[in-house]
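notes to self, project folder thing:

trying the whole complex as one job this time. last attempt i did each chain seperately and stitching them together was a nightmare. two parts in total, labels are on each line so i dont mix them up again. if this works i'll redo the older ones the same way
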Amino acid sequence: MKRRLSNLSISHISSGLPERTISMFEYGIDFGDDEVKRIIKSTGVESVHMAEKDMCTSDYLVAIAKRLMKECGSSGKDFDGLVLVTQTPDYILPATSCIMQHRLGLPNSAVTFDINYGCSGYIYGLYQASLLVSSGSCKKVLVCVGETNIRTIHPMDRANRMVLGDGFSVTIVEQGKNELMFQIHSDGSGYSYLIMEAGGFRLPVSTETAKPVQDVYGHNRWPEYLYMDGMEIMNFALSRVPLLVEEMLADVGWSKEQVGLFAMHQANQLIIQFLAKRLKVSKERMPVSLKYTGNTVSASIPLLLTNVKENFSTEKLKKTILCGFGIGLSWGGVATDLSDTIIHNSWEISRDELVKMRRDIND
Amino acid sequence: MTNMEKYINAFKESLEIDDSIITDELAFDSIPEWDSVGHMRLMASLEDTFDIMFETEDIMDFSSLGKGKEILKKYNVDL
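result (full assembly):
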């Protein structure tokens, strides 16, 4: 699907991370120090942030949204839409976006919904918000993305445990002067390559799903936890993403050299380097920024923008490509002008702040 | 250093293994070091070593040290 949407603005991006961090070297106890060092060389991840056990996705996102509103001089009443992209909602039912509407003080007339996507999710969220605004349904929409990923990973799942981290971000999409050129794709034939198999209605949690089973390579995997077939995901990323970027450039009419920033989903260091090489784009224009955050799934693109904003002038951000890819399988991108976007500094959110926030809103 | 020596060296350095297990039969997933993470590093190392860029299907087909020799021929790397 390709779609050019006009008269829009990605006006603000604000990101946050749980205060608590885990060094990958702590995993030497479980996996051995040499193994940890070997994996760090490939993934580029040295530490990640981890959500507090008693806090959920909406707690972090409401904190970020409240701070963003304060910094913008706005309040919940100014928003008439909220799109939440997460794989770790507070409850199976109801939609967490509904709970966030209440907690943020959005009017009852606001449209809110959850989108269950991961690493491509920021693009899906921007697309949905842009449709709401460009159709005239909404004037100002909050796009909330983020996950409490770490609690979806089995303690002995070495590959996922050493790359995924928790992170959150809130973006405001409203009426403006910019165009956003979207491409969105999905291919469910690869659904089993990234999956949390048990816990839904096809395979409810049971004593059986608590036991490990063998994957196609003969390794243990745990149906109640996230599973990733690393080889197939690498195949998917290298097959689909370069083509997606080339098509987006053709659609929007930009040469590769004109693009100031390629903001890619931060899967891991080597995948980004492979993509940059295949697209013949310098590492300066396709940055890697996950050393202290890991792969934060749907929040990785806005967190990247936050982390690298000082390196990119307003001029460079006039032609920006954002690109996500992952679970579904799904992939997508948007080409747009971010030169007027206010990218706020990220902050570390303490448990005390969250407790106080919840108390203040009588939650 | 000959191309064959460079090829073997790429395995040793990217997978962090020693000579004793280097044979044509050394295969993906046959040792803990050659998992998907190790495979990415190996492919990156071979691309840098021989100044080539693998097609994605060759990255997936690169299932053993012996098979890799066949694949490199496609890229005019004579071992």
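what i see at first glance: The radius of gyration of chain B is 11 Å.
need to look closer tmrw
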